[in-house]
Design a protein that fits this description.
The protein is an alpha/beta fold. It contains eleven helices and nine strands.
């Protein structure tokens, strides 16, 4: 079973996180699958859009796989963060419009992943959005912080990062963390509607605007790579 499923429907690419046994946790297998999908998406030149969803009604992505982290040395753990920065950075700066269809728990690294996408829709009746790093004593790197800071409400970013508070879909919408919250039966139809609208935008113009919006992250990535 593939941990990521990848299909195209008309102008829409649908990426489905598909490892419910782990809550779609991020580990070497998952990151490798992300790289394969990103390589395909980065080669797309026609107007289109991407939805990132999950096959699991309980979890969208719960962050790093702690089984993978067990026993890692400080050097190995630093390498893990660099892997996250690389994969999430490619998602953040992908030329195509991206829509997160958040079906359930979106925690820690999963919340960072959601933050780098252009738009976010979340299930309103179940699941938490939270930056739990403060409670597991794993501070963000400067690049991962810039990714969290892509969320439009800076006050909410500050509060969520410093408290680890968990918010459901309705509260996440009120805080501007997600754009919309819907009951599960409406979540994917609405994501498809938004993605279809975005897929009609001129890709070159959209990407130029997107890079402007995310220029602080892009600058941080460049500085780190040149250091």
């Amino acid at each position: 079973m593939a941990v990521l499923e990848f299909e195209k429907k008309g102008n829409i690419f649908i990426v489905t996180l598909n490892n419910p046994a782990t809550g779609n946790a991020l580990n070497p297998e998952a990151l490798s699958a992300h790289r394969e999908v990103l390589a395909e998406l980065e080669a797309v030149s026609e107007n289109s859009a991407v939805i990132v969803t999950s096959s699991d009604p309980k979890s969208w992505c719960v962050g790093l796989d702690f089984e993978w982290l067990k026993g890692q040395s400080a050097e190995e753990f630093a390498g893990t963060f660099r892997e996250l920065e690389e994969v999430f950075g490619r998602w953040a700066l992908l030329a195509l419009p991206t829509v997160g269809c958040i079906t359930g728990h979106c925690l820690a690294g999963g919340a960072i992943f959601a933050s780098v996408l252009d738009f976010r829709l979340m299930r309103s009746d179940r699941g938490w959005f939270a930056f739990t790093e403060i409670d597991v004593k794993i501070p963000l790197s400067p690049i991962l912080y810039e990714m969290a800071d892509l969320l439009p409400n800076k006050q909410a970013v500050r509060e969520l990062l410093l408290t680890g508070r968990r918010v459901g879909g309705a509260d996440a919408q009120k805080l501007g963390v997600v754009d919309e919250a819907h009951l599960p039966e409406m979540l994917m139809p609405r994501a498809l509607e938004i993605a279809e609208e975005l897929s009609q935008k001129d890709l070159k113009t959209y990407n130029t605007m997107k890079q402007l919006l995310k220029q602080n992250l892009s600058k941080q990535i460049t500085e780190e790579s040149n250091a």
